[in-house]
């Protein structure tokens, strides 16, 4: 499974960005997908999940500001990020687990100043 993120960039605090993650067309529809991020000098952390049943879960630090969504017709996972804060700066990664195997994208950088 290949994952390709896009949409990162530099934005002022309070601004918005939408990240996209294109995945292979043969990726099963009912798989767990997520966005992770890694700030400089810190461990990678989960930001938002879509469960196999479509349930959404968010890290407390982004609850109410970020929205994860998925368009199976376009084979794309999204992360809408609003009211961005300095602490949201980092490399954002797309993740999927298919038949017990985890796959990661190459990441897209988000810088909030």
Secondary structure: elements and pairs:
Blueprint (H helix, E strand, L loop, with lengths): L2 E4 L2 E3 L5 E7 L8 E7 L6 E6 L5 E3 L7 E6 L4 E6 L8 E9 L2 E4 L3 E5 L1
Parallel strand pairs: 2-11
Antiparallel strand pairs: 1-3, 3-8, 4-5, 4-9, 5-6, 7-8, 9-10, 9-11
How would you describe this protein?
By secondary structure, this protein is an all-beta fold. It is 0% helix and 53% strand. It has no helices and eleven strands. The chain has strands spanning 3-6, 9-11, 17-23, 32-38, 45-50, 56-58, 66-71, 76-81, 90-98, 101-104, 108-112. The strands form two sheets. Strands 2, 4, 5, 6, 9, 10 and 11 form a seven-stranded mixed β-sheet that branches. A four-stranded antiparallel β-sheet has the order 1-3-8-7, with no helix packed on it. The chain is globular and about 40 Å long. The N and C termini lie far apart (34 Å). The model has no long low-confidence stretch (mean pLDDT 95).
